[in-house]
Each structure stands twice: as C-alpha cells, then as structure tokens.
C-alpha cells in the first residue's frame, strides 16, 4: 500500500479553513431559520463542512488498491486482498469513531484479483501501449498476453460474423446496451465463432474520449475481454477497415479469479435505548472500479461521516442504527446474470434475515459528493413518500439559512419509484420487505469525471457536497428514529400499483380485473384512514404493537410485490406478463393481417427478444432462458423472483427470413405464437390472483392497525 499522505493533509487543511464559515444565518428578529430539533442541529453542526468525509473519500480512492496509476492505487475487486485490507481499515475506523460491536462477517465470492490491462497494435504499424481495463468475472490473458489478428465485428451480432473467419483471432466489438444489452451476449457470440479474446468499446458509457470504462461481465469465463477508449477504438477501427494487410494486436490483462474467495460485510452499531430490536439501516458498498471517488468513495465517506457526527453529537437513538459497508456490489460471481450487489443479499437473506420485518427503513448511499452540488433529493419506495415530503422543508430551511450552502442552495425535491433499482445494494433490502430511502446532494453541472472510468477521481468530489448529503441523511434517519408511529403511507403504494394495473391490457388478455381492482380500492381506503390517524397524533393504542404490525405489512407488500422482469428491472409480478401478452398479441394479429414489418416490431419487444434476435440460438438459450427460468442459487437476489421468459426465437428468425424471401405464409408461426401467448396469459392470471391475495391480507392487517389507532 502506498499512501498519498501529503496530498490528503493539504486537502484537509483547505476544507478546515472552509469549515470556519459554518455559521447559521439569523433573520432580522434573531430567529434561526430552521425547524430542526436540538438533536438534529447538534448532529448537523458535528458534520462541519465535510472535512472528515473528504479525508475518508481520499483514502478510499488512493489507498488500498490492486495496482497503481497516476494518482495512487486503483481497483478493489470483491474478495481481493486489498478488499480484505480495506475492510479491516473500516473496522478500525468504525471502532475509533465510537461505533459498538464492530464486526466483519464473511460470505462466499468468486474473488476478482486484478493488476491492470493494456492493448497494443503491432502490425502493420506499431502503436504505443494503450491503457485498457478488464471486466469483473472474466479471465486474464497469459502473462505474455495474447497476440493475434484482430477483426472488427461491429455490435457483435450473429449477422456481423457473416463472411468473416475469426477462429483463433481477436475481435473488436462495439458493446451497446441499447442494442445488445450487455457484454455477455456479444462476448459469447465471439466465443461461439472461435475468437480467442475481445477488445471492447463501450458505446454509451464512455462520455470522455480518452476514458476507459469497466463493468461486471455477467459472462461465461472462457475468453478475456478488455476495454479501450473511444479515441483508441476509432483509430483501431479505421486501421482495420483501411489496411490492406491483417492488423495484429496484443492484449494483456492481469486478472485472476479465486472461486473460493471470501467477501466481508462490515457492521457497526449505535444500539437503541428503548427499541434495540428495531433497526434503521444505513448502508453502502466499498468495492470499486478504478479510483471510485464517486462510486462509491462518496458513499463510504457519507456512511462514516453520519456515524461520526451521530457519535460526536451525543445522539442516543431510540432504535438501533446499523452502519453497513458491503463488498461485491460491483461484481461477485462468475457466469451468472446476477453477478452484482451480492454483499447486500448475503447481509439480509443470510447473515441477518431477522432484520426483515424489524427494520424501519434502509438508507442506501451511492455517490452523493459531486462538486458543485446545489441541492438535495429524497428518493424512495412509495411507503416512505409522505415521510420524505415532510423532510423537504427541514432540508430547505437548514441549507437556505446556513453557510456555506445559503449562498447557492436550491430547494430540494422528492420523487418515488415503485421499487428499489436492481442495479444497487438497495434491491435486496427492498425485496426482503424493508422500505428504501436515498437522500443525497445533486444538481451539479460538473462533468469532469466519468462513471466506472479512471476519471472517477477526487477532483470530482467536494467536502461541501459530502456534508450536504451527510446532514440531510442524518436528519432523515433521526426523524425516522424519533417517530412514535412509523410514518408509512401505504395509500401511496396503492396509488402506484393502480397506475401500473392497465385495466385495458388485462381485459385484452381475456382476464377479469374486477376482483383485483376492488381489492386495491379497499386497500387504498383503509391505508388512507390509517395515515390520517397517524398524522392526527391523537391516536390511542400501544405504539409498539402498532409499529410491529406496520412493519409486518411493509414486509408483506414489498416482498410479495417485487419481481425481477426481463432486462433485470424490478417489476410488480404482473407487469412482465402484462407487457408480453400485449406485445405477442399485437405481433400475432399483425401477422394475421399480413403485415410482417409491424409483426416483427412488436415481437422484438417481447422480453428477451430485443437482444436475443441478434444472437445465435445457443447464445440466446443459455444466456436468456437457462439462466433466467431456472430457480437456482446463482440467481442470488433474483432467486424466486424472475418472471418467465417465453422462447419465440425460432418464430422470430423464421419470420425474418420469410420477410427477406417474400414468403407470406405465416400460418405455422401464428399457430405456435398463439400457443405461447396462452402460456403467458396463464402466468399473467396467476400473478394477478397472487397480488389480489396479498392486497386482501395487507388490508386485513391494516384494519387491525386502524382499530389500534382509534
């Protein structure tokens, strides 16, 4: 490990000078412009200007890495030795802060040990060695690299290989999420055609011309793939297309996968004084690509910053505050569609499953320290919407009247999603039944760093922005902790579900929506009654019993309503089938009308076919069907939640070929597609029935709460 101590000290001195301006601005009457409680003010003052958090982000970014580049050590793969060292650092730091019972809890990972990558053109001209990046879960090259002719295959679809022999060669691929979804599809296509490795150019993710991006691979572990920048890809493509001679390239990637690796989740606690068996979870991940100053150094800095300010301000929570730093969020397992966000899954489904149904909310920290941020946001699942709306005035009054933010602060905003995203740790907490909240700084015009590239560095982070995020998260956590009755607004869940139950699509599939709509209406009515009683603060009943029931309802609704649909999106259980039946029906009816172009358009939207239509069947079958439709351990956080992907590859490809030849006999395809349509209708119907039963059960429990409150 190499320390950048001098740079860190200079940075700390700068932010310490700035911290002298942390003085609340009084109005003409001498009244402080905030409505925070004395505990919240003490917490906010303990945060300062984010000097401690900035120091922690610096350490995160430039120490405990697997190889060195310009500013310091970079990369920290799941389960790697630097990850173990940094976990120990977090354990010591949490202990020094004053958190209690700080522990490391291990879980299995396919540890990714990485030491750098490069690409060099050797013939017909020799280039410099280019900076490149490997991908989590893919093997490295031999120590002397792989030297071979390289062939440009565009997006890497099966059609891009027509007339090209890539056996024993390298391929250059433009990986496009919009067209082929993710790396695993074009990479397997390259493998099937005999390529020995790939040079990758990520089309959407490299915003800066010389940025080099990396991601998890979700791929088989057979051939390596390294990414290069836009500039280098442009040069290489032009060379391949214009050269009369074969272009020879050497790729090198130092990567090793330990299939018996261990990742560590780091836990620290401030134990509750009156309800130690109820929890508020504050979580982030500490693994990273490149320096990771934003993703997720800012998250770790905020985690530690909240913890330190709570301890230093003397805050004594009613509920237990859990501070959790997870490993394996960026990548953690090979050869699976679900290779990321594994630390959180192990935390809530294996290490502490008892927390589900006892946790009031999970504050998930991603980023939140971007320089130039002028405001904060409050985001989450519907259950916390009304609670988050109530936070906005607190945020606005504090930052609008407190230096240094008062000179530029813009009023905060609140927004809601149906579910936590599958692309981060928060999804596992959500699917376990814990309401999700994200609070952080935003509205920055800064564009100097790039996601998952070497430009995600400390020049994109400011102490003031980190402090803004820390203060707002801390206020939100304290407000949640001090609530007598948990402020869940289930009527907002009913509103959200109502918007996504497309009555006309249910009826178009031949299904009866009457019962689920009635169940939803009753769920909304009782939820609204309960919310009004909570807000009145004139309720009777034992708060502990009421809260236990509310937590039970949250766990039921979130767990039962959260499914993973095609393209790894979090959906209500009916949504995947509602869409599939619509797309299939329109496609089939278009065929019956003889409109092949319209039919192919609709059929391409059936889940799995948008990218599956560009792949060989072996690729599509393995990647989309086998790994999705089998309930197995390697599905991790999606286990038992994946919607059924219907296989229409043969019909689609046959129709495509008939379009090319002018054949207008679609009778076989129409018959086959109707049969598969009926299968999805059955899944659709079953999902609606299950959701109806969940609504009935939740409403019954809400009626119990209503009686307790009256």
Summed up:
This protein is α/β, with parallel strands linked by helices.
Short key terms for the protein model shown above:
710 residues; alpha/beta; Aminopeptidase; Glucose Oxidase, domain 1; 3 domains; 13-stranded mixed β-sheet; two-stranded antiparallel ribbon; 22 helices; 44% helix
Uncertain runs with pLDDT below 50, 5 residues or more?
1-33
Sum up the overall morphology in one term. globular
Contiguous helical run count? 22
Instruction: Look up the CATH topology of the largest domain.
Output: Aminopeptidase
Radius of gyration: 27 Å
Structure explained in plain terms:
With 710 residues, the chain is of the alpha/beta class. The chain is built from 22 helices and 17 strands. The protein has 3 domains: 5-110 and 263-482, 3-Layer(aba) Sandwich (Aminopeptidase); 112-258, Glucose Oxidase, domain 1, CATH 3.50.30.30; 490-709, no CATH class. It is globular and about 80 Å long. The chain has helices at residues 5-19, 38-47, 51-62, 81-97, 177-180, 184-192, 230-242, 293-312, 342-351, 385-400, 426-432, 463-482, 490-500, 503-508, 514-536, 543-561, 575-592, 596-604, 609-612, 617-629, 649-661, 667-709, and strands at residues 67-69, 72-74, 100-123, 130-132, 146-152, 170-175, 197-202, 225-227, 248-270, 275-285, 319-326, 359-364, 375-380, 413-416, 436-442, 563-565, 569-571. The model is unreliable at 1-33 (pLDDT under 50). Strands 3, 4, 5, 6, 7, 8, 9, 10, 11, 12, 13, 14 and 15 form a 13-stranded mixed beta sheet that branches. It has a two-stranded antiparallel sheet with strand order 1-2.
């Amino acid at each position: 490990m190499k320390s950048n101590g001098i740079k860190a000290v200079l940075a700390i001195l700068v932010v310490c000078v700035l911290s002298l301006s942390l003085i609340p601005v009084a109005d003409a009457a001498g009244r402080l412009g905030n409505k925070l409680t004395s505990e919240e003010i003490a917490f906010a003052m303990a945060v300062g200007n984010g000097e401690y958090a900035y120091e922690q982000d610096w350490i995160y970014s430039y120490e405990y890495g697997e190889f060195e580049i310009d500013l310091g050590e970079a990369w920290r793969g799941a389960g790697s030795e630097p990850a173990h060292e940094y976990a120990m650092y977090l354990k010591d730091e949490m202990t020094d802060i004053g958190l209690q019972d700080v522990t490391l809890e291990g879980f299995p990972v396919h540890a990714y040990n990485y030491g750098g990558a490069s690409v060099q053109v050797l013939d017909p001209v020799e280039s410099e060695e280019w900076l490149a990046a490997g991908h989590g879960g893919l093997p490295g090259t031999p120590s002397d690299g792989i030297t071979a002719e390289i062939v440009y295959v565009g997006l890497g679809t099966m059609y891009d290989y027509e007339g090209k022999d890539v056996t024993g060669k390298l391929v250059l691929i433009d990986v496009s999420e919009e067209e082929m979804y993710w790396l695993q599809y074009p990479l397997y296509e390259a493998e099937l055609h005999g390529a020995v490795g790939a040079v990758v150019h990520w089309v959407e993710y490299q915003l800066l011309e010389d940025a080099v991006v990396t991601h998890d691979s979700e791929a088989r572990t057979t051939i390596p793939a390294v990414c290069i920048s836009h500039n280098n890809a442009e040069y290489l493509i032009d060379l391949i297309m214009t050269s009369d001679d074969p272009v020879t390239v050497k790729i090198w990637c130092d990567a090793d996968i330990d299939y018996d690796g261990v990742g560590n989740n780091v836990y620290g606690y401030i134990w509750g004084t009156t309800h130690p068996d109820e929890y508020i979870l504050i979580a982030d991940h500490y693994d990273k690509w490149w320096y990771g100053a934003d993703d997720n150094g800012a998250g770790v800095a905020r985690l530690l910053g909240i913890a330190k300010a709570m301890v230093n301000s003397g805050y004594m929570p009613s509920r237990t505050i859990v501070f959790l730093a997870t490993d394996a969020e960026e990548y953690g397992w090979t050869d699976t569609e679900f290779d990321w966000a594994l630390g959180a899954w192990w935390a809530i489904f294996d290490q502490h499953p008892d927390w589900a149904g006892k946790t009031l909310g999970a504050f998930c920290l991603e980023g939140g320290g971007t320089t130039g941020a002028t405001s904060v946001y409050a985001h989450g699942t519907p259950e916390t919407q009304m609670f988050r709306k109530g936070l906005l005035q607190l945020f606005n009054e504090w930052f609008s009247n407190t230096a240094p933010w008062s000179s530029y602060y813009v009023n905060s905003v609140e927004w809601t999603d149906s579910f936590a995203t599958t692309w981060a740790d928060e999804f596992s907490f959500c699917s376990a039944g814990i309401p999700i909240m994200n609070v952080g700084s935003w509205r920055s015009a800064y564009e100097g760093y790039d996601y998952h590239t070497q430009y995600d560095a400390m020049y994109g982070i400011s102490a003031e922005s980190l402090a803004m995020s820390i203060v707002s998260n801390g206020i939100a956590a304290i407000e949640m902790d001090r609530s007598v009755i948990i402020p869940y607004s289930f009527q907002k869940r009913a509103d959200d579900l109502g918007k996504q139950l497309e009555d006309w699509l249910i009826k178009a599939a031949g299904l009866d929506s009457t019962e689920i709509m009635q169940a939803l209406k009753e769920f909304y009515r009782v939820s609204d009654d309960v919310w009004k009683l909570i807000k009145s603060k004139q309720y009777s009943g034992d708060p502990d019993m009421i809260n236990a029931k509310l937590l039970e309802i949250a766990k039921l609704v979130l767990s039962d309503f959260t499914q993973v649909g095609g393209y790894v999106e979090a959906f209500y259980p009916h949504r995947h089938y509602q869409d599939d039946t619509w797309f299939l029906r329109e496609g089939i009816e278009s065929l019956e009308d003889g409109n092949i172009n319209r039919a192919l358009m609709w059929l391409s939207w059936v889940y799995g076919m948008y990218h599956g239509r560009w792949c060989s069947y072996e690729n599509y079958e393995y990647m989309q069907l086998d790994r999705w439709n089998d309930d197995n351990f390697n599905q991790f956080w999606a286990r038992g939640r994946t919607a059924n992907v219907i296989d229409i590859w043969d019909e689609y490809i046959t129709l495509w070929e008939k379009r090319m030849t002018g054949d207008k006999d679609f009778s076989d395809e129409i018959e086959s597609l109707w049969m598969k349509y009926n299968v999805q209708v059955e899944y659709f119907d079953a999902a609606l029935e299950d959701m109806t039963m969940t609504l009935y059960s939740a409403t019954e429990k809400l009626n119990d709460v209503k009686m307790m409150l009256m």
